[in-house]
Amino acid sequence: MSKCLRPSITAAVLAALLPCALLASRAAPAADSADDKAANTLAHDIFKQLIEINTTDSVGNVTTAAAAMAQRFREAGYSDVFVGGPNERKKNVVIRLRGSGKHKPVLLIGHLDVVEAKREDWTTDPFKFIEKDGYFYGRGSSDMKDGDAIMATTMIRLKKEGFRPDRDIILALTADEEGGCCNGPAWLIKNHRDLVAAEFVLNHDGSSLKSEHGKPMVFQLGATEKVYADYRLGTTNKGGHSSQPRPDNAIYELAQGLLRVGAYQFPFELNNVTRAYFERMAAGGGEDAASFRGILESPPDEAALKRLMAIPAVATILHTTCVATRLEGGHANNALPQRATANVNCRILPGHSKEEVRQDLIKVLGDPKITVRYVADDGTTITDTAPDQRGFQPPPMRPEVQKPLEELVAAMWPGVKVIPYMDGGASDAIYTSAAGMPTYGVSAVAIDRDDERAHGRDERIGVRAFYEGNEFFYRYLKTITAE
Fold first, then answer.
1. Which of 86, 182, 262, 270 could cysteine-pair with 275, CB 3.0–4.6 Å?
2. Tens digits of per-residue pLDDT, 25-46?
3. What is the rounded distance in angstroms from the CA atom of residue 200 to the CA atom of residue 14?
4. Domain region containing 347
């Protein structure tokens, strides 16, 4: 995931969606056939292989991972295999399972790159695949090499079975979702659109299946998401000798501005997805139900809004958020700082542009000495203005996507409901959606609400959750593409 860290929902929200009787422990679905067991073994091996290929932007190589997957696909019998990209380190792999052509293709997307990870920060080597205490550890284990392994396994399994879908199934495993010069889906759409053109897209980035203490509680079908944006805040002055401190030194000025940004709360706003989501939450009961009903009022109940804004995992879908993530300043230990800069990362609600938020930050700072410049997705290009880029409007819920999803979720996790959801982060869905391909977030690797470690130290996912997600995706993709 990503630039995005998918938010979890609170225990009360989860509990509201499931009868108490279903909270009892249940056995994991068994891999009861030789084919199921072989598929889990293959998924495990691919997962391990990908984790142990460093695909960070700094020193890693996405091409190595793309080439490794391409070799597996060719060995499985695929001839429609494309490996290409803008440079030698940023190649993508695209394959196609040919169908009858009754319907237009479906595109599956997943990114191979991961965020940075320092060995000294982890208790295990982030680029070694470790299994212990019922979890798989490694950088990318939840964001999102688990999904890459599952999709690759499913495509290999379908090919070996001789499955002929009613539409072509395309899989694109790509570079630079987490940041870098050359985003994979954007590059493919611009340079090889014929390879990825589809009627709709399934995005495996993120975790749709939310659990509590290992028990799946709700399936969040990704229908829209926020927009990612970075801004460079900076200030300069003449500096001076550190024996003569002044309150107008660059670090102090910038720090005061960052405190104002941190204290500012962007306006509360609901769209059609989040409104429907909270309506469903309110109807489910639980300790937060009254607050959910309160924010649905017009005007919203201020006390209810205040309570929910205090819960980060809920607040993230109620408003645009901006937070300082990096800070740099000064040139010597014995000198007043002449320059200070900070990166402020924003996640912007659909309907609002990156430039609009830049202007908001200028107003919040209220200090003409602090500049606010836009940092492009490549992380290096910095401009005085930001693009008029906005989040995509939620696509209509397609019956061929939603109905089989609801049926399979009910079969695998009785009592768990499927609810359209707005992700609080960002993903490559912004590129496929902008290209006119409705994109839906579907991933069934359950992650506990209080154990989301994507982008963090000791990233991990549950072993059982991984194998259940593998079973789910195979069954789901086969169902929605069967003749």
1. 270
2. 333 444 568 889 999 999 999 9
3. 29
4. 227-266+320-383
